[in-house]
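Please, does this match?
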Amino acid sequence: MFHGRRYRFVKCYPPVRGRNPTMRILRFRLCGSFLALLWALGASQAWAHLEVPTGMESIPYLSDSSDAVFRGHVVRNKVLWHDPYSPRVRDAIAIFQVDRVYRGNVGQEAWIAFEFGGGLSGMNCIDLAPSTYWLVFASKSGNGLRLSDSCDGALTISRRLGPDLHGSDWKAQMAADFTAGLNENDPSARLVSIQRLGELGLPSSRSTLRRFIGKGNDVESKWALYAALRTGDVTALPRVNRLLAAGDEELPEYGMAFELRYVHDPAALADLLTILETAPGDLTRSGVMIALGENLKDRRAVPALAAHLSDPNGGSYRALEGIGNITHEPACTPPEDGNNREYDTRLTQCRIWWAETGQHENWSKQ
């Protein structure tokens, strides 16, 4: 039985990387209860510890936030304290047999302090149980090590190791180890290896992921598609379009929708315009408009953006910003202070400009 980490599914925006000028206006999507996912940019300590849905973590981010990164399996636990009313809740030390060190100074055996809270509080979510295999992100704590994050400081992995790429970049070695996990007989172990390749985000993984897009089972194919998109593979967009045409509420489609905002390849223009025209999800359309208006800035996208100047749920703001970035038209330039009323005024001005002037221009060439 493959031991995976259990997550609550949180339908909120993941962390925003880079510039996002409308964050003062747009609000994160409400969750089923009161939770939202604000990773790395959380306004408080409580927000910062909410779980990222499995498969959407960022290994480079977690690595940069850690003093040591290694993989291995838990040999045994040394329990320091446990709740007499809930024995699974405890403070403990996990003793690891280390299989590979990617960053930092770690010996063949590593002792990692951790707290497990049953995974119910949004904190202390990782149970480093004996005989489980993990990719560990550790921080120095006194004379020892502890998980760098109580809910993302360790990720489940396959037990398989790739070849030792002596002296290679740690990311390349990690990718080789994840790729070895694709040969597992256990479907859950193969799936987590696909997810980890996406979380690493290396372009060198694209050919491997494409094989699973075409030949994996339905779940593997979808996650491989999302993983390929995270590596910047825009050849995945036609398949992504077909999936997002049915909505973006569930994983991995939800992740694909969010990832669209990081597309920078000019070759993606036609596919992005098609997705914008056909996708029903607000998150999908928002991601495409960010890519068009902040990354590509191609004049040919202006008519498509203008068609969304009356979108609800923040879509109109994205369209306004995109048109302003591309055309530098004063009527479509967002106000610097981010005031909601000023945004609404500028939206009205931009709609008038489009109706009277913009739509009559030739937008067919870059």
